[in-house]
TrEMBL record:
CDD domains per the UniProt record, alphabetical: 7tmA_OR
Name of the featured protein: Olfactory receptor family 6 subfamily Q member 1
Membrane protein topology class: Multi-pass membrane protein
One Pfam family it belongs to: 7tm_4
Length: 324
């Protein structure tokens, strides 16, 4: 593929074409006086995201009591959250330590694609989890027969496929554009709207395509989640109080994460860059916390893992002494 070019005006009024091989991430330049503060905050958030979600994945994979579909979807969500934050935060952390952060041309578009892809995939898995809760509460007698392991895998593969499809048209069109002026992206990462400002030609078609697929991704998942919970609440209204409270308890953690996810998305579109980054990391940050606090089975599994590790640590000195 022909490499896009950057154009600079010269004294004769003509244009000099220079190939773009990299972009400069300039969104963090305004934080020069507070770099180490934001670096420390973002690093702490990132470590908690990786540690908390890794713990959920480890516990749900190794504990034999957590074999229900809900936990299968949960560890897939945790995996997506880790990849999502890893697509932007490490690069931003490096930017706080450098005078000028650059990213290669291909690297910029890869980052843009995976950022959108993983964002949509996360919401698609939240939609699958809403459907799982709908089946468990509204159709409990057929739940086991419907939500078999092949169906679970198919739903997760569908979520990944949907996430990969949504950013593909906009990313492909962006790759075919030519870019003018200073190759400076005024954002913390390769944000699509910031990148389109550097396009030489009219980018209105790109804007329309990008907006259309963003609406498809957000509205389709949002409407399906909303529909699932409307049906759940209708079913719960005819239950006895004890059954209603038990059913509600199984939905609370998921509903909390969904609320944070969509509110953080809407808020991040209207705030400064660094706040946008923190809100983008909000759902992956809160996901392990919310599920750990709200889910008794997960709490018990974490305690069992902790107890096993504690016993291993205590028995290690004895094993060494015996060996000696």
């Amino acid at each position: 593929m022909e490499e896009p070019a950057r154009y600079f005006p010269i004294s004769t009024g003509e244009w000099l074409t220079v190939n773009v091989t990299f972009f400069i991430i300039h969104g963090l330049a305004d934080l020069a006086g507070h770099r180490m503060i934001f670096f420390s905050i973002l690093l702490l958030v990132y470590v908690i995201i990786l540690g908390g979600n890794s713990l959920i994945i480890f516990v749900t994979v190794t504990d034999p009591k957590l074999r229900s579909p809900m936990y299968f979807f949960l560890y897939n969500l945790s995996f997506v959250d880790m990849l999502f934050t890893s697509s932007i935060i490490p690069n931003m952390l490096a930017g706080f330590l450098m005078d000028q952060l650059t990213i290669s041309f291909n690297g910029c578009f890869l980052q843009m694609f995976f950022f959108i892809n993983l964002s949509v995939t996360g919401r698609a898995i939240l939609t699958v989890m809403a459907y799982d809760r709908y089946l468990a509460i509204c159709n409990p007698l057929r739940y086991t027969a419907i939500m078999t392991r092949p169906v679970q895998v198919l739903l997760v593969v569908g979520a990944w496929g949907f996430g990969a499809l949504c950013p593909l048209p906009a990313t492909t069109m962006a790759l075919q554009q030519r870019y003018c002026g200073p190759n400076v992206i005024r954002h913390g990462w390769c944000d699509p709207s910031s990148l389109r400002r550097l396009v030489c030609a009219d980018s209105s078609v790109d804007n329309i395509v990008s907006l259309a697929f963003a609406l498809v991704a957000l509205l389709s998942t949002g409407i399906l989640i909303l529909t699932s919970y409307i049906l759940i609440f209708v079913t719960m209204s005819s239950m006895a109080v004890t059954q209603r409270l038990k059913a509600l308890a199984t939905c609370t953690a998921h509903l909390t994460v969904v609320s944070f996810s969509y509110s953080a998305l809407l808020f991040s579109l209207q705030v400064r860059i660094i706040v946008s980054v923190l809100y983008s990391a909000l759902t992956p940050f809160l996901n392990p916390i919310v599920y750990s606090l709200r889910n008794k089975d997960l709490q018990d599994a974490i305690r069992r893992i902790g107890l096993r590790l504690h016993l291993v640590v205590l028995s290690a000195p004895r094993s060494i002494q015996t060996g000696i």
